[in-house]
Every structure is written in C-alpha cells, then in structure tokens.
Amino acid sequence: MGYDLDKLYEGPRSERRAKRKKVNRILNILIVLVVVLIVFFGGKLIFGDKNVDESVSSNQTNQPADNQGKATTDDDSQDKEQEKEETTDKPDDQTSKEKQTEDTNDEQKELESDDSAVVTEGDPESNILKTIENPAWKPIGTSQAEPHSIVYTEGSVDRNEMEMAASYATGFDRSDMIVWWLARNGENSVIATVSSKTTKQVQKVYLDWIPNEGWKPTKIEELKENDSQTYKDYKNSSEPDENENEQDETEDND
Questions:
Q1: Which residues span the domain enclosing 173?
Q2: Residues 149, 162: contact at Cβ < 8 Å?
Q3: Is the pTM of this model over 0.85?
Q4: What does the radius of gyration of the chain's CA atoms come to, in whole angstroms?
Q5: Are residues 122 and 226 in the same domain?
Q6: Do the beta carbons of residue 194 and residue 203 sit within 8 Å?
Q7: Alpha-carbon span 106 to 100, nearest angstrom
Q8: For residue range 116-144, what is the model confidence (pLDDT) as tens digits?
Q9: Do the domain assignments include residue 160?
Q10: Helices (H) and strands (E) in the chain, counts
C-alpha cells in the first residue's frame, strides 16, 4: 500500500514540473520577443532621427546653392539684356556715322562744284544777273530706254527727271521749287525756268539729254525777273483790272 501511495504522489508532481517547464519556456520566449521588439523599435527611432537630421541639414545646405544659382541666372539674363542693348545701339551708331559721312560727302561735292563753277556776270541791260557753267555737273541717271523722246506731261517719267536735273543744278529742293516753264532748246535739249518759294530766286536751267545716262545740266542763268509766259499769265490773272477799279470808284462817287 505504501508503495502505491508513493506512485500516486509522484504522478501529480511530474505533471506540475512539466507545466512549470512549459510556462518557463513560454515566458522566456515572450521575454526574448519583447527584447527583440525593444531593440528593433529603439534602433529605428535612433537611426530614423539621424536620417531626418541629415535630410534637414542637406536641405539647408542646398538652399543657398539654389539661391546662388538663381542669382547667377539673373546676372546672366542681365548681361544678355545689356549685350542686346549694345547690339541694338550699334546699328544706330552705324547709321548715324553713315549719315555723317553722307553729309560730309555732300558738303565736299558742293565745295567741289562751287570751286569748279564758272560764273559770268550778265549784261546790265538784260534780264540776266549772271550765268553759271559747271564742268562738274553730271547726268542724273535715267530709268528710260532708248530711243528717248521728250515728254512734258506732268507726272511722266521724263518730266520728273527734268525737274530732278533742275533741282540738282540749282540746289533748290523739289518741294521748294516751282517749275514755271519747260521749252525745247534743240533736238535733245530743254530749258527749264524755275524759282524758289523761299528765296524767290528765279533761274533758267539748260539741260541736255545724254543717251542712257539721263538729263545733264549745262548752264544756269539767274534772272532779275521771271520772264516765263506762265508767270506772266499768272501775274495778270492775279492782278485786279484797272478799268474795273475805275468803274467801282465811279459807282461809289455816284
């Protein structure tokens, strides 16, 4: 009986020991898991903060570089604008220089023409103040084809070229010049009577046609008075009739 009682007591003891071992294993496993989780999350927090700090510092270091890049691009754009302004100013300077050279060339031509001109005083009893002949005069050029025929019609090519030649010889600007008379002076020659609106100076210009080169001035006569028929007709039409004035005075007296 005693032997059986011992066996009965040993059975529950072994079961308790087995349960304790299982519980200890489970606790150990849980402890290990907790430790692993603590290490994992702790490391993540630590290294995560370092990465955030590094990203913030990198952003801060990049911002001045970006600003510097923007500043350099702004400077480059300003330099390009200045270069554009300089390039746009260069054509203006070039055109002004070209105008100056043209003006100087015109002045030199005028001086040369004045130096080479031969001036002869007119007869005091005639209507000619002086006669001017200049060997430096040249044909003005033409757009007309040969054979040439003289055309006096206003607005025609030949008439315009005659007026251009007269303006070239007299120095009158075409906008300031009045053409009073154009008359034939031979087969290929004409005489143009012109005056200046500003100076009231009247000149008679002799022109010769040079084939394929145009009208060329050969002589100028400066006149005391405008002797063209057109001017006489204009003057007579603009002056009041003396008979009409006398008649008006008689009617007023009555």
A1: 116-238
A2: no
A3: no
A4: 57
A5: yes
A6: yes
A7: 10
A8: 889 999 999 999 999 999 999 999 999 99
A9: yes
A10: 4, 6
